[in-house]
Specification:
3-stranded parallel β-sheet; 5-stranded parallel β-sheet; 8 helices; about 35% helix; alpha/beta
Length: about 260
């Protein structure tokens, strides 16, 4: 049976369909123009915004990100970056809902410490329970623990987003077996969030069966962010196609592509 083409294989988050499986951040770029160009080169339709660092209207006198990435063209995904308690994360999401006229889709992240930026899983669970109960559609940043991913899904999160490696590290997928366990058991989208460094990292995540990849530093920190955004777009698309196509089994020994049986001479 032929696998569906990528353009007929949409990413569905909270009931909404997206053709792009690459989600991008908006921080660390040199200016808003570079942010716009990189977002366009990535083909991203969902862009995440750290509400504590980026103006979406809470500061009327400052440049507003929504002027270059308008909500009628992009799905804005406010995130709780910089929050270290469940209370702070919930408060930030409530502010985002006010600023974006009732917008429900948020990315929850509650950090454990400023050095590793690993998630505080206890605070993350607490915040997720509150936000889901208040009607938010929660995409949640978490560790690559399959049990925790299962609990967050059971709470009602619309997507689980395990790290590939620490935020901004560029180390790539460090534990593909945990990711594979999460993917194989999840009934909601699984997106790699954090740790991607280059295109091959994104492709590996997609080849494992992840539904998408979210990245910021890997693009914004590149020598040429616009070119890297385009490379990441291709990598995500290629990784998804490879997953759908189904790779050959790994073997210890050769398996000739031109077999010796049935030769004419």
């Amino acid at each position: 049976m032929q696998s569906p083409a990528p353009n007929s294989d949409p990413l569905i988050i909270a009931g909404k369909s997206y053709r792009s499986r690459l989600l991008t951040g908006t921080g660390k770029f040199s200016d808003f123009e570079q942010t716009r160009l990189a977002t366009e080169a990535a083909g991203a339709q969902i862009v995440t915004v750290a509400l504590r660092r980026m103006n979406l209207g809470q500061d009327p006198g400052a440049p507003n990100l929504l002027e270059i990435l308008p909500p009628d063209r992009y799905t804005i995904l406010p995130n709780t970056a910089g929050c270290y308690t469940a209370d702070d994360a919930v408060r930030t999401c409530r502010l985002a809902r006010e600023l974006l006229d009732g917008h429900k889709l948020v990315k929850l992240e509650v950090l454990g410490d400023p050095k590793t930026l690993y998630p505080d899983v206890v605070q993350t669970l607490q915040a997720a329970e509150i936000l889901v109960a208040e009607g938010f559609d929660v995409m949640v940043y978490t560790s690559d623990d399959p049990i925790l991913a299962r609990r967050l899904e059971a709470i009602g999160c619309v997507a689980v987003m395990p790290l590939a490696a620490p935020i901004g590290s560029g180390l790539g997928v460090q534990n593909r077996w945990n990711l594979l366990e999460i993917v194989e058991n999840a009934k909601v989208p699984v997106l790699v969030d954090a740790g991607v460094g280059t295109a091959s990292d994104a492709a590996i995540a997609m080849e494992l069966g992840c539904d998408g990849v979210l990245m910021n530093t890997a693009i914004a920190g590149a020598k040429d962010p616009i070119m890297m955004a385009g490379a990441m777009r291709k990598a995500v698309e290629a990784g998804r196609e490879a997953f759908l196509a189904g790779r050959i089994p790994r073997r210890r020994h050769a398996n000739a592509s031109s077999p010796a049986d049935g030769l004419f001479f």
